[in-house]
Amino acid sequence: MVNDIKETLFSQEEIAQRVEELGKQITADYNHEEGLVVIGVLKGASIFLGDLVRKIDRPLSIDFMAVSSYGLSTESSGVVRILKDLDLEIEDKHILIVEDIVDTGLTLKYLTENLKSRNTKSIKVCTLLDKPARRKCDLPIDYIGFDIPDEFIVGYGIDYAEKYRNLPYIATLKSEVYR
Ligand SMILES: O=P(O)(O)OC[C@H]1O[C@H](OP(=O)(O)OP(=O)(O)O)[C@H](O)[C@@H]1O
Ligand code: HPA
Ligand SMILES: [Mg+2]
Hints:
With 179 residues, the chain is α/β, with parallel strands linked by helices. Helix content is 23%, strand content 31%. The chain has 4 helices and 9 strands. The chain has helices at residues 12-29, 46-53, 106-116, 175-178; strands at 5-10, 36-42, 60-68, 81-84, 94-102, 122-130, 143-147, 153-154, 170-173. Strands 4-3-2-5-6-7 form a 6-stranded mixed sheet, sandwiched between helices. A 3-stranded antiparallel sheet has the order 1-9-8. β2, α2 and β3 form a beta-alpha-beta unit. α1 (12-29) crosses α2 (46-53). It is globular, with a radius of gyration of 16 Å. Hypoxanthine binds next to β8. 1-O-pyrophosphono-5-O-phosphono-alpha-D-ribofuranose binds at residues 41-44, 68-70, 76, 99-108, 159. Pathway: Purine metabolism; IMP biosynthesis via salvage pathway; IMP from hypoxanthine: step 1/1; Purine metabolism; GMP biosynthesis via salvage pathway; GMP from guanine: step 1/1. Its EC number is 2.4.2.8. Belongs to the purine/pyrimidine phosphoribosyltransferase family.
C-alpha cells in the first residue's frame, strides 16, 4: 500500500491536532444548543467523525447517510444517489454534516438541500479537507480542517477504488496507480 503513495500531506499528529481544534470550536459554537445531530457521510467521513465527536463536549446524537457519486473512479459522476438514509428524525434539530472532503461540492449541495427540506432548526457543515480549485457549485462551509491542492488524495477514511481508507495519514497517490 505505501508503495503507491507519492507524498504525505498531513501526518497522523497534524490531523489529530486539527481535529482537536475543530472540536473545541464546535463545542464553543453550540454553547446553549440542545438537540445536536452529527451526520456522517459514509464511507469516507466515518474515521474523521469518530475522532471529531470525541472532541465535542456537548450532548449529541450520531447518524449516517450513504451517498455515492465517485464509485470506483477518480471523477465525480455528477449524479448523487442516496444509498442509505438517516435512521433518526431530524425535524427541529440542529444538524452538523461531517464530510471527509469537499471537492466539486456536488455531494454536499445535494445533501444540504435534501436535509433542509426536513424542517431542521439549523444546518452547518464541517469538512476535514477542502479542495476549492475543483468546486462546481457555491456552498458555505462552516468548519474546514485543511485546504488541499488539486490532487487526488487518500487515507484517513478516504479511498481510491475502496482502497487506502485505513492509512492513518493523508497522502497523494502516484498517478500510475490510477491512470
Ligand atoms: O465534492 P464532491 O466532488 O461531491 O466529492 C466529495 C465526496 O466524494 C467522496 O465520496 P464517495 O462518493 O467517493 O463515497 P465514499 O465516501 O464512500 O468514498 C467524499 O467522501 C465526499 O463525500
Ligand atoms: O481527492 C479525492 N480522493 C478520494 N476521493 C475523493 N472524492 C472526491 N475527491 C476525492
Ligand atoms: Mg470514495
